[in-house]
Design brief:
By secondary structure, this protein is mainly α. The chain is built from 28 helices and no strands. Helix 8 packs antiparallel against helix 9.
Length: about 500
Amino acid sequence: EERDFREALVYAEKAAAAAPENKWYKMELANLYSQGNRYEEAANIYGDLIKENPSNPDYYLDQAHLFKLMGNNKEAIKVLDELEKRIGVEESIALEKQRLYIQDSDVDGATKEVRKLIKAFPGDIRYYHMLAEIYLANGMQDKSLEIYQELLDENPEDPYARLAMAEHYRQQGDKAKGMEELRSAFSNKDLPAEPKIQILMSTMGMPGTETAETLKESLKLAEVLANTHDDDANVQAVYGDLLLQNERKEDALKAYRKSVEIDGSRVELWQQIFYVQSLTNNFKDMADDSQKAIELFPNQAIIYYFNGIANNRLKDYSKAIKSLKRATLIGTDDNQLMSEMYSQLGDVYNAQKKHELSDEAFDNALEADPQNSLVLNNYSYYLSLRDEKLEEAAEMSLKSNEIEANNSSFQDTYAWILYRLQRFDEAKEWIEKAMANGGDQRPVIVDHYGDILYRLDQVDKAVEHWKKAKELGLKSEVIDRKIADKRVYE
């Protein structure tokens, strides 16, 4: 290839020398010189071509490019200046000169070129933004601000200028004015929704670092955004997320619903709807909505799972079992979710007193996720209520407490299993841990404490705790008899 290139160069030089009036020979020779990094010789050829035909703009552009490759930006600019004198102000040429000036750290030269464009095309606001950005990028914030102010005087609704002003005020520490400018920009439909969402996310900071103040400020912006782009599913979803983070669950649900009405193809938005419905105990709507979603996503295990949860809470066990079995059959690579689906199925079977099927479901749940502390707790508690496999139940319950310490429910379960095993001293130790972690306000735990105290011959204290359990609202068929007779009934 090197030999072919040298031969081509020799022929091109001979051809150009033999026919100096032939522009094609010269251009081919210039091209070969350029390929061989002989930029100066190539530039000289284009200089000759310009003299011969000064009206051809391509010669100027090619020569300027060669000077740029040589690192001689000043000569490149001179060539483009000559071209501009002939054809007038043209955007691509002015912007190329602006870039060359910036490469040489000549801010004045760069801004001169953009101002030339502003003068030539006063209606094009892009050039104002370019000029302001040059000043901003070179640490000349005051000049940048002047340009944006000038732009806003001419066009008060310009959202990009508003964004720039917002950033200026943010850097100056004036949050109030910054937010005012952002709200103005967000209310303008000329600024697309997506960059607004990105800005909105940035106002909140990194996930997990949000404060009540940043969430409140972001919610105000999100509200403006949602009203401005009321037909954008993504905007409504983001608005829903912020409403939820600000504990406005019902409003979040409305926003999520609006989002899926616009675009129902995003399964994660349906999940958010079900999640909020579960938080608000709205299981009737959750059952209906998840049934609709099943028609849209017939192969999504997560949808059947939520439908199963809803029907379980509505005590429609046959529907719950059907959905949960379907969910486990479809399956998922998410072992935690698989565990939760089997766990929910175990709960439903337990409610129907189908204990063998319940135990099988819980075993599957633990096979999927052996560290699922809630499954370990619930499974062991159900076994204790049936007085079955108590030693195995004790192992599972202890493990749940090792995984999640200081959980009063888990501590109560372990205490109750120890009670069933007649290990009353250990039971008292664990029930007192549960009481110390908030269990003293939960009627079932207080009642269990009374039973354990009774077995330790502390009858008066036992009665005292049974009474407290009743005051806390314990629903039990035997609590009155226990208090009256001062003895345990199980």
